[in-house]
Amino acid sequence: MGKIRRQYSSKIKLEAAIALISGKVPVAELCQKYSVHQTVLQRWRNDLLEKGPEIFNRRKKSDENDSSNEALERKVGQLTMELDFLKKALGK
Question: What torsion do the CA atoms of 55, 58, 59, 62 make, to the nearest 10 degrees?
Answer without folding.
Answer: 160
